[in-house]
UniProtKB/TrEMBL annotation:
<protein>
    <recommendedName>
        <fullName>3-keto-disaccharide hydrolase domain-containing protein</fullName>
    </recommendedName>
</protein>
<keyword id="KW-0732">Signal</keyword>
<feature type="signal peptide">
    <location>
        <begin position="1"/>
        <end position="18"/>
    </location>
</feature>
């Protein structure tokens, strides 16, 4: 009986340590774990028939062919999912994970790989949430830090037929190449918070509250992802004060 209690206490202590090791959230608290992807083969295959922009399927859709395609391709090696933009394409490699949600906390570790640019325009990566029609919100990371970009349901680009971007929120901080950084995207209602290595920014937009249908990862030049997690986003009683403190640090 005593040994059983010790084992139970040890398990409880380990679970608390694991929770304490997670990056802090500002707007929300973590509820049930919904997605846990460590990028070890095989990735969950696509189930269902894609409908519209990014709906009707679950699992992963991504470019897995050889180099030289229109946008790029992906490599899966030892728990690291790497997107490579083809030289001359000037369009990031993209991978979509079909999963329907409204409010959520999305977290992963990201790395901008130090490889020759070979004429490619941008060294960047992104995590986007999409609804059935288009992009809703984008968290992007470049050498200068993290950017949150909303999309506008009322403004459509006449050439691309896609939603126009709104004004981005910024968390400016140096992002070194070939080093892993932790990003957290909190989505609840019409607000989002984006955090990289503890530095955050926030914004709100009516479109953010729509039902989301997938998470899209993207890599410009070359970037890697690992340890993708997604939790229910529950209310955080401290958000009002945390938001005020965060907004006070934003320069006009």
């Amino acid at each position: 009986m005593k040994s059983s209690l010790l084992l139970l206490f040890a398990a409880f202590a380990c679970s608390n340590l694991a929770a304490d090791d997670l990056p802090k959230t500002l707007m929300t608290t973590r509820g049930k774990l919904l997605v846990s992807e460590d990028f070890t083969p095989p990735l969950a295959p696509v189930v269902g028939k894609p409908v519209g922009f990014a709906s009707g399927f679950t699992g992963w859709r991504y470019n897995a062919g050889p180099a030289g395609g229109k946008s790029g391709y992906w490599k899966l090696t030892d728990g690291v999912f790497t997107g490579v933009e083809s030289p001359g394409a000037n369009h990031p490699a993209t991978a979509s994970f079909g999963f329907q949600f409204t409010d959520a906390i999305i977290q992963c570790e990201v790395r901008l790989n130090d490889v020759p640019d070979e004429g490619r325009k941008y060294r960047s990566l992104f995590v986007k949430a999409t609804d059935a029609k288009d992009y809703v919100i984008a968290l992007s990371v470049g050498p200068g830090g993290l950017f949150l970009t909303p999309y506008d349901a009322e403004r459509i680009n006449p050439t691309t037929k896609q939603r126009e971007k709104g004004t981005a929120g910024r968390a400016l901080t140096p992002v070194k190449l070939n080093e892993w950084h932790t990003v957290v995207l909190e989505i609840k209602g019409t607000e989002v918070v984006g955090t990289i290595d503890g530095k955050s920014t926030t914004l709100s937009n009516p479109l953010i509250g729509t039902a989301k249908h997938s998470i899209m990862l993207g890599a410009g030049t070359e970037a890697s992802f690992r340890h993708l997690r997604m939790w229910e986003a529950l209310p955080n009683a401290d958000w009002a004060s945390a938001k005020a403190a965060l907004q006070a640090t934003v320069k006009p």
